[in-house]
Amino acid sequence: MTNGSPYPTAIIGAGLAGLSAALSLTTLGLPVTLFDKGRGPGGRLSSRRSGDWRFDHGGQFVTVRDDGFKAVMDKLRASGQAAPWDGRIVRLHPDGSTVPHGVERYVGVPGMNGIIQGLIALLPEAARPHFSTRIVHIAGAPGRWLLQMEDGTSAGPFARLVLAMPSVQASDLLRPVAPALAVRADAAVMAPCWALMLGFDQPLSLSWDAAFVAGAGGDDRPLSWIAHDGTKPGRGQRATFVAHASPDWSIRHLEQDADQVGATLLSAFRAATGITGDPAFSAAHRWRYALPTLPLADGFLWDAALCIGVCGDWCLDARAEAAFVSGARLAAAMGVG
Ligand SMILES: Cc1cc2nc3c(=O)[nH]c(=O)nc-3n(C[C@H](O)[C@H](O)[C@H](O)COP(=O)(O)OP(=O)(O)OC[C@H]3O[C@@H](n4cnc5c(N)ncnc54)[C@H](O)[C@@H]3O)c2cc1C
Questions:
Q1: 107 pLDDT above the threshold of 50
Q2: Is pLDDT above 60 for 2?
Q3: One MF term in GO for this entry (predicted)?
Q4: Residue range 296-325: mean pLDDT, rounded
């Protein structure tokens, strides 16, 4: 029963925000059904595997300040799916000098999606996500929502809906049934990010494990973040690296061919690190909606009359932790409304 209805709540999007909402709602005794278009768990905290290479090509680490998020992360640390990252993280200046950038950071183990897998394991069996399930249309009416999938099938009815995905994707689904919520989602701005993944056969080391690159964004300095991914806990010290282009550079090169972007970013990586050897593995990935550059201040959106809620990092702040907090706050509002 969902607040008097015989139908469950559908959550579209099983990233950190959707899973956080699912955890809170099921803890309140409210049944949920989770859908995600991805082939496996992760969302923007995905890990990319290719052969025996493995990369965190999206979210790099999480910060843990919120009590609810800390309680969950403590469970994941106990189950070995998350660990503190005590790497040498610096701010890298154009003259090559570095300044330590020490903040408490945590990562998933053995990849960032360990956090997502750990959250899924905390859910009751019936609430675990259905993957490879893209929702393309919302039909029905409040209290009896129906979801249409890309393959032509549909699911429902659902008492209430939660949309837990980047703002542009949420807005597209909301517009026909909840235009006012779509307008709110359209007020958030999300920037893309081109990510470069590099794997080397020979061991390599730098004087730092990851760097925020100062003054990034121009064509001469596209990279804003470079990480020796293999130095994170549980990655076996492999010579794997992930570098992210700045939002400005990624916007300017959004539609460029991935191989061309990869070549440009590899040159920038070489210039910044002094690593000149040829990588055994190299690939560029485009995140079309990577991080909110203009998030809402609301924390979440909830229309009690329509029985539709919306959550995600873009409702609060440009951090993974904000996605978790947004999902939990929405669920708390739904639990009483
Ligand atoms: C390159 C990059 C670097 C980052 N670095 C950091 C960092 O270092 N630290 C940090 O704190 N944060 C970082 N972030 C941000 C962090 O990853 C996000 O804040 C967080 O993962 C967002 O979670 P979410 O649940 O709101 O959204 P998402 O993780 O995007 O989850 C949304 C889910 O919805 C699914 N979905 C979308 N549309 C549909 C549909 N129609 N039907 C079904 N499913 C659908 C998607 O498959 C996805 O799994 C980074 C993000 C990127 C991309």
A1: yes
A2: no
A3: oxidoreductase activity
A4: 97
Report pLDDT digits (tens) over 152-176: 999 999 999 999 999 999 999 999 9
For residues 270-294, average pLDDT = 96
Pocket test of ligand 1: the residue of 44, 45, 138, 301 to mutate, having most ligand atoms within 8 Å of its CB, is: 44
Tokens of 131: 């993957």
Structure tokens at 224: 């804003």
Q: Which helix (H) or strand (E) holds 68?
A: helix 67-78
CA of residue 15 to ligand 1 center, whole Å: 6
- Ligand 1 environment, Cβ below 6 A: 12-18, 35-38, 43-45, 58-62, 134-135, 164-166, 169, 193, 195, 244, 287, 290-291, 312-313, 319-321, 323
56, 148, 150, 165: which to mutate for ligand 1, most atoms within 8 A of CB?
165
Domains and CATH numbers, the chain: 1-41+129-187+298-337 (3.50.50.60), 51-114+189-294 (3.90.660.10)
Which atom from ligand 1 is nearest to the alpha carbon of 20? 25
